[in-house]
TrEMBL record:
UniProt-recorded Gene Ontology molecular function terms: phosphoric diester hydrolase activity
GO BP terms: lipid metabolic process
Name assigned to this protein: Phosphatidylinositol-specific phospholipase C X domain-containing protein
InterPro entries: PI-PLC_domain, PLC-like_Pdiesterase_TIM-brl
Amino acid sequence: SCCIREQLDHGIRYLDLRVSHPSADVRESSKDFRLIHALYGPKMQEVFREILDFLTTNTKEVILLDMNHLYDFNMESYNLLQMEAVNILGKELFCPLTHPDSISLDFMWENGYR
């Protein structure tokens, strides 16, 4: 099991991230989101920073983040996670909602999406 940066360095570009928003008695703050796979993993802020570090040094790479397993989430925690991702990675890296048939690597590169 490699850290996120090691996985990216080894060629992984699709990350299936299962994220939990721990209960208030466990988390350090309302912004404490964790990777989870039976046990709590690293904080999402750390994951986003590793991804940003990789993208900063690899300017043509595109990474797909699949976060469809969200545990103990409500609308507020969903919005907080989204804000954390944007605050750390930067809004300009995110591809806006676009029809999948319109997205290609050329489209992503031309528009600066990563």
